[in-house]
Amino acid sequence: MSNERLSASNLGPATLGIHGEETDSPPGSPIVPPIMQSATFHWASPADGELIYSRFGNNPNQVEVGRKVAALEGTEAAGALASGMAATAMALLALTGVGDHVVASSRLYGATQKLLTLELPRRGVDTTFVDPDEGGWEEAVRPETRVIFIEMPDNPTLRVLDPRPLVALARERGIKVLCDATFASPVNLRAASLGIDMIIHSATKYLGGHSDLIAGVVAGPQALVSEVIAMSHLYGPALDPHTAWLLDRGLRTLEARIQVHNQNALEVSERLSGHSAIGRVIYPGLPSHPDHKVAAELMTGFGGVVSIVLKGGGAAADQFLSALKIAVAAPSLGGVETLVSQPRHTSHAGLTQEEREAQGIPDGFVRISVGIENSQDLIADIEQALEVVD
Ligand SMILES: Cc1ncc(COP(=O)(O)O)c(C=O)c1O
């Protein structure tokens, strides 16, 4: 039993986040890998053709972080790139070409939507968006469809789509399913176990975890990951070795941080439910969430983001953000500090009010990336800021 537990596939994320990249550790080798801040590396002999070059993703710090992410995701391989968007873009460019087609959820991060609607058509690739509430995935698929792209949970409405029927459809038709699981992290969602072919993270968020780096990762079978990294050789979004080292350091505390994010977000969401200034509290861990059952079945935790809709609309949301004393009004998410933003000023600023409302984002919508501060301090801060708008 104990030896079975110690095989890599049975180790918990807390152990893998700390030891997941280790191979041989001869006596005297450092406990913490050194930063290999070098663009290139010595050849063994003048005839050695192997090119270790930091744009190619084979710098030791890049390799270590890839190995650790693969261990955390339970995939054969993973590769690290210079941002979450680099990961998404390289994956889509690697898997599609002129005449190909993508089917995508209509609930995607704004820049991913733009990539699909503005950039991929310039490469001869067309996308059909499907509203997961309305369905129609099968009708959207064409003979030339190469990729189905989804996000779990999505930003900022935190809807959780069950990918299993899509995976079954994709398997039948030889299509790859890509999932941006940034909001879940590998601690809350093991997407590969649901049949997802390639998992993408903005490692800027929970994987790095300290709002001090920009990075992205792709995880999946070796052949797919290699295709994506090969594409990055040409476009060039390599992860700098120092940033790879910082990301590796973030991964060492991933599970511990995620547990506190999960717990704090649940406490915040429960406490705010029914508050007189709030029309709606959106959190997959609340039974009132439309996808609570799916989330409870597929995820081991509900994540660190809670969204609220203020009854007083946009003006109340502006006032609420200004009144916060501990939580910080700023974009991004997944850091140790609580970050609060309004999609109407950030990710969804390009849409009309009606278009935002159709996506479930009215003007009083506020996204709270609940950090790992003391939960009672956070609740006190949020409640005092709500008094200003109540
Ligand atoms: C769900 C999601 N995917 C991808 C990205 C892009 O990541 P990056 O900013 O690291 O390029 C973001 C950024 O906010 C995101 O929220």
Q: What would you say this structure looks like, in words?
A:
The chain folds into 2 domains: 2-252, 3-Layer(aba) Sandwich (Aspartate Aminotransferase, domain 2), CATH 3.40.640; 255-389, Aspartate Aminotransferase, domain 1 (Alpha-Beta Complex), CATH 3.90.1150.10. 38% of the residues lie in helices and 15% in strands. The chain is built from 15 helices and 12 strands. The strands form 2 sheets. A 7-stranded mixed β-sheet has the order 1-7-6-5-4-2-3. β2, α5 and β3 form a beta-alpha-beta unit. α2 (13-19) packs antiparallel against α3 (60-73). The longest helix is centred in the last third of the chain and has 19 residues, at 254-272. The radius of gyration is 21 Å and the shape is globular. Bound molecules: pyridoxal-5'-phosphate (PLP). Pyridoxal-5'-phosphate is lined by residues 83-85, 109, 111, 151, 155, 180, 182-183, 202, 204, 214, 216.
Ligand inventory reads: pyridoxal-5'-phosphate
Overall shape: it is globular
Whole-number mean pLDDT: 95
How many β-strand stretches? 12
CATH class of the largest domain: Alpha Beta
Q: For this structure, what is the CATH homologous superfamily of the largest domain? A: Type I PLP-dependent aspartate aminotransferase-like (Major domain)
The portion of residues forming beta strands comes to: 5-15%
> What structural category characterises the helix and strand content?
alpha/beta
How far do the termini sit from each other?
Answer: 57 Å
Strand/helix succession:
HHHEHEHEHEHEHEEHHHEHEHEEHEH
Physical arrangement of strands within the biggest beta sheet: 1-7-6-5-4-2-3
Helix count, DSSP H or I runs of 4 or more residues: 15
